[in-house]
Give the backbone structure.
Amino acid sequence: MIPATNQRPPATILFIFGGSGDLNLRKLTPALYNLFIDNYLPERFSVVGLGRSSYTDESFRERLLEGVQEFSRRKNGPDDTWKSFAPTISYLQMDAGDAGAYTKLSDYVASKKSEWGELPNVVFYLAVAPQLVPGIATNLGKLPLCGDKSHVRIVVEKPFGHDLKTAQELNTLLGGLFAEEQIYRIDHYLGKETVQNILALRFANSLFEPIWNRRYVEYVQITASETVGLEGRGGYYEGSGALRDMIQNHLLQMLCMVATEAPISFDANEVRNKKVDVLNAIRRIKPEQVNDVAVRGQYGPGKKDDKDIPGYRQEEGVKPDSSTETFAAVKLFVDNWRWEDVPFYLRTGKSLPEKATVITIQFKPAPYYAFPEEATQSWQPNRLTIGIQPAMDIRLRFQAKRPGQTLAIDPVEMVFSYKDAYAGQEPEAYETLLLDVMTGDATLFMRADQVEAAWKVVTPILEAWSSETPDFPNYAPGSWGPEAAMQLVEKDGFQWMAK
Ligand code: BG6
């Protein structure tokens, strides 16, 4: 986040490894383009796409423009803003595996330094497959310029490791090459406006905090559902699965936002310390408990809107007997004074009925009803629903008297909607995160210990699941996942919130 004074970041060169890849096309360049339109990019700015494919600057820009026209929240309109933005983009053909090629990067920085008359910030963005990260980081680490802690940063995309051990190894490797404050580990959910707003809701208001604890909260639910299947990502997803792909990072980070204690400042380390405290407080699941608190699923073939949908096992790049889960639900507890014994239910999956990320805080029932029984037939406990996406809203459910001469109490909702409250479009997560990297604000990025603490939470589940062959497929595409996921909450007397 940048201060309200709207200072633009200092001169910056952004090198993107995987320049012609999907992430750059769909997310990074559209984000930079929108930052440009909103006047947030540094006055002196250069973005350099790196890759093995052969492009000229011109053909690379044309390729990226296609991405902007398809994926950006703002397209290149009649005013042709792209034409003003395009000259900041160039392309450098290089094989990231060739250690000798990295001097091209130092040379480029040196040439910009003399052209601009100042030493720019240099950001290396690794938008590449995870197996390429160690090699690229090692080669970058050998460049003398990377020793400059205040000017040089490296951005690493998820997945950060495949499990606790590989995440630790990657942290050790990166830690040997860069200082922690140079390493920006992305979890794009943290860049979402509505996720950041959780802290504003909780700590800029005095209303919620006094009831934000085990005394008043019955349970918390976090759902991130997707309608899509694999979208051609079988090669990656097959080695990942829903627990690694979504719960270990995005859902646990949202849990941290809901459960954290109040930070004393918005200093990056203060906020991250508080979040690590939450992760460390999550009750360790014993191997024999895994089946009681975790459910996995995989969608089979079926029909959606009268169209035949292939099952996960029929998707490209997936083994015909794959045990990879496309759905995961877990029940966690945060063992501390605030949250002891309040269940946190997390669920995510592909090929579900809707694309929605929603956090629900369900409050305990009122302790006593003086109303006659027939007046409270449709009574429901208070509930705060935080719509992360696509609906961006906050809904508070409470009881009201139905107008009329008979006494009847109904649940009603008070709604705050971003769309109604604020004109204009909100920035995309990558806009916020790229700007933060350029300004050097690591608050919304994962620190080494945070990533490892998150892996520790899911490790017992991963281990238990890898030792048993699941009975897959076990849910139909377009359904809310396997039956066992319903039972996970129903056995506690609750229900999943569909929205
Ligand atoms: C990514 C996962 O991190 O998040 C994808 O790898 C998933 O599998 C995506 O589809 C969801 O992100 P969003 O922002 O569309 O909810």
In short: Residues 158, 226, 245, 357 surround 6-O-phosphono-beta-D-glucopyranose (CB under 6 Å).
